[in-house]
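Hello, quick one for you while I still have it in my head. My current little project is about how a certain protein chain folds up. You're getting the sequence in one-letter code plus the fold written as tokens. Would you mind checking whether the tokens look sensible for this chain? Here's the protein in full, and shout if anything looks odd to you:
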Amino acid sequence: MPELPEVETIARTLRPQLIGRTILEADVLWARTVAAPSAKKFKEQIKGQQIREVSRRGKFLNLRLSTLHLLIHLRMSGDLAVKKGKIKHEKHDRLILDLSPSPSSDRPRERNIKSSLVFNDTRKFGRVWLTNDMEEVTGKLGPEPLNGDFTAQWLYKALGQRHRQLKPLLLDQTFLAGLGNIYTDETLHKAKLHPLTLSDSVTKKEATRLHEAIQSTLKEGIRRNGASIDWVYRGGEFQNHFRVYDREGEPCQVCGTIIQKLIVGQRGTHICPNCQRE
């Protein structure tokens, strides 16, 4: 599943291709892809909407339209691509939005070429929502870890108010939005904290270290266009710089101790037993 850096990279890639275009038609190829409203209403309401902004909230892509929000969660295998000209449906295409020609193209020939935004999803877990109030979908998400309201002081207080293991808590999107298995493992190693550590036992100094590790790890992931470790996500290189994730049996880059794999909250978890002592 793509995490914050991957979704941010997708948003950044799609932004210049989509802003200013009008959605001419929607072809819903698998009705359950549309979480709300019904597929019929979705097709009616999205027609004629202009794409004004492409952004992200947690792991959700947010396309702000003329009067609505199109929210997309890629889940395990969802992929979005803008394809030019007349396209043929591929086996796992679930939703196709026909777009007007780009009004800002610097290539005159392309100004008259229609395109389509194609949502392809092999495992059928991805979902889209069309709503006039995005809080209906994202309202329960925790703070954005790269925003100003996510401070070390907030994190220390929030950890102390809960009695949970660190890794499952950081994966909880209602606590903090955007972290998944990869970036949680990388963050905890950087912060020198064991994933089984109870949140209310974290000291103020450790919370400050964890806050810095969360932000620096996510920023590095974005800078490297995320991690490409699945067949769907292309172009990222953060996987070449993992500290512990998917490195079971290899030496820790900090101390040389062999990386171990644990199961925490039913999730595969990679740690250095020396840097991250329980």
About this structure: The chain has two domains: 4-138, 152-271.
